[in-house]
């Protein structure tokens, strides 16, 4: 951490600040520039609140040097984390998985869709039982009954399931039912009560980036989960909010290599939510794969026009077949490249 | 709602869509343009998911005409809502209030600060007992003990208190202790479980706009609370996230008159979080007041350098005295203007 | 275009507005909804300024139905445009090209770099002679002398060159020297004087999206050029500005399929500017290729540490060799897929 | 400037970098942290391209400490700049001015509007003769003939005029006609050819912030003008582009106190473009005034429904009368406050 002081700061004021910092157990390094004085803080800077430092009269600005995330940081954990999602399916460290299924669990057609996506090559099944909807008047999901349908499908098809948990009070229910992977949605990316609660379990967590979440905030959210003891975190880029309105979100695929650079956790991308339109899902699924994602999450529905939510972005099973063929071909290129490097 | 179809859509396909819409109880109005066909949907359009409509092959785009919020909508409730916050303090409909106090409740100094802000003219006391922090390693608040300190201060000073609730499991605790106003923070602006839970109480809710929340989403969050029965909602603009980094957030003061135009609910502005720096709090507090806000929420700390959180944006009691003088002067201009109009 | 009127509008006022619109040669279609009245405008809506319409008392909102771009619009020109860049190099309609070279032309090393990128498989040479720099104190480019070095390289290597023009007064110079492709940079994406000036030539134009430019604005900028007579426009996605700071820009790869859907013009992507860091260029080049781009623009420098500008995002020739190998492999997958579709 | 190196950097590599920096005439200050090595660069850091530094293998990140703007920087010029706009009208340093008039000069009604705005208290007249329009098919302004009408109005009313210049080839024309203040629009905020050209004159320049321009970029654009010799620069906040769509732009009023803190140049705000709707212009004009702006630019039209551009955001003369009354009242509060401080 670096504190930039006004050139006009008195020696007394600078010394006072230096001793204040050193009392917190850090070392300092003061350098006098042409237009400002710079104090470098060395040591465990989590002990100092940068905003507090910035509130002092003589301090102009404070800049972080170290990343505030520790457990999610590749610096302290160079090897890729591989998360075991159950049913023999692992993700990360060269293991690439496709999570597919309907936006919402709607009933018996879940099994029909699940069979088709498995046949096409998907290795994990998604489906929402508890749905976060912008409007209180929109369909809110089947709830616990939806979980049962997912469990049934998982059993029949021997595939791990991924489904969203929205309320800390539901976490135990998800654990009790044996949900393989709990998803934290974009709107809950900084719901710290929920993050802590899933952090207390050992169930893998698919953690989506918030709509206005920076890459660092996504990693800090992972840190919340990991600091409670659960290190089975899968990061997910699903589009961020910008000024562009031709797509539902702006797919920040830069985040894929950036997250791989900063963190050891697996990175999944969701081209369905990141585009919002069926016609853009295939090209952006391929793009995410080429960018190096460890997995994709794709919405598939047997009859998108009848879907209870997000039908506009679902692929039909036939479209998904074709997309999977091309994903495999891109993946072959990428994984060969990885071997060479 | 309007559906824009491709010019190339066959008559059969158009008729099929029209009858699908009409089966849902809506009326339609088809017009053939030069480059597209437009279907107007008349009736209760909440019965139709616009994204679903957009998923159909012949549909190019769907545009909303009506706002999706009903209870928060001024169209259906032209008069300003006045929220009674307890201790005789009302907000909205010409009643202007200043909420002041420390970011976090830290101990006995709460009372010292509370006395000073009351003397300066603040009418409500703020202070966080449960703190949402980006880092799991940062100070997380005093919890229930902090609520007790707030209650004690409220009693002594006869002022309503405003404090943040982050977890649906804590809502009953807040109600039991008699908290006057529950605050929903920016990070929980789409935490629908929490919104529903506070919606089941009768305690007034100060609802902050999300960092990437549109004005419509803020109103939909209010709608979540109101649709559960609690109509005592106070909206709060506290800055949104943009590309600008010289301030902590971008204070979207346009939101004040826009919210007044769209909704009957009171609108408060928070210049402390919206700027992030003490030196910008006064001018932006005055600006918010001039824009027509029904109230301001301002952080004040007796010793910002020692604050446990957000010290960089707190005013000292002396700064707050001066700011209150000027707020009163601006408010006098604005309320006179309102009478004239 | 659709005008949404207040429910409270009097019949007289509605009739008045209808006749005002019809006097402009358009037809109208009025429908009465539950909470508003909607007028559909049919005909050449470019004759009506939507903002003007919105200024009228009874009008609540105006929404466009047709896109405002005509010449760039795929609706009126379904087949892909193929732009001939000279030296036998075509782009668009299945023709994929890689444009590579240094950010700035710096001297004789241009030829060294050009030979290496050609050998690696690049088919067009880039290099800036006139440089737009945020600071007036930063290096501003070699100017006309740089153009000469580019022409010399183009001649020796028989490759078309792409170089940026910043000033309408320089356009004739670029034409006189025989520059193959003129680039319009992101900062000039709405410099209408410059757009019109290049529109009066027949030289192909590589048009970059502005930092805060929507996809529609990019197409409207193309429209400026095309409406002056020059239809040889190549669109370029180079990253937009968002709140994310871990990369120089946010690479909006969704724009690639969206532009292909809306327009017939070729679409190029620039992973160098879109990421800002050498280490992210290869994965994002592959992603852009997988998303269906018709070409890539990549910065290559023989000694990035000595580059006069943007060294941080340049590949070395060795890195570029490897990247080209993988681009070819991805392109093979994508073009096969295209044949099947 | 600070370079953060990887902890793994060898001593040789660090020494090599240090001597490279020192050869450029700067001093260095190396400190070894727990997780990284930090080099502080002291001296004229404009000699070093931060992106170049960042391209080096051992460098993780580079952070600026000093602002890159010099002439616009309050640090080197503590007193407020007062710009003389002609006709005895000065702005900045306590001098507050209101610039009003139509968006576009349309003909003889300019004089009618000008008389009304002067009577209401406006001290400068605005009107566009050359109009930047997103669509090439929209009205592009009267051109030189419009300038003549402005000159005529300025003469009759003895008010300085403000009008936009879009093309470096037109700057001499503006100077020859004696235009009092040349406006640079948001779309040309980084049109460096144009900035340099107006920098060579002595005519005051009203410089608008770009739609995606940071506060620092606005100051760098001012620096372009000032570095050519013209120090008569007035900064203008006119709204930035964000995700919010209920207003035309997001009015970043934080920029007013931030610009005053960072720079000595006068700061004007434009509530007409920043909101886009007549109904929000008055509250936001008052807010800008309360935030401490040195002036306001407001669109007024005698018949907004007939305006050739931007009618939706213009005030009528009657509305402007009322707004001016309230601006004066707010200004009285603010300027009293300034005296006290």
From TrEMBL, chains A, B, C, D:
Domain of life: Bacteria
Enzyme Commission no: 2.5.1.54
All copies of domain DAHP synthetase I/KDSA, residue ranges: 82-322
Matches recorded under InterPro entries: Aldolase_TIM (IPR013785), Class-I_DAHP_synthase (IPR052899), DAHP1/KDSA (IPR006218), DAHP_snth_FXD (IPR041071), DAHP_syn_2 (IPR006268)
UniProt GO molecular function: 3-deoxy-7-phosphoheptulonate synthase activity
UniProt keyword list: Transferase
Pfam families: DAHP_snth_FXD (PF18152), DAHP_synth_1 (PF00793)
Domain DAHP synthase ferredoxin-like: 1-67
NCBIfam families xrefs: DAHP_synth_Bsub (TIGR01361), PRK08673.1 (NF006421), PRK12595.1 (NF009239)
Name of protein: 3-deoxy-7-phosphoheptulonate synthase
Record organism: Collinsella ihumii
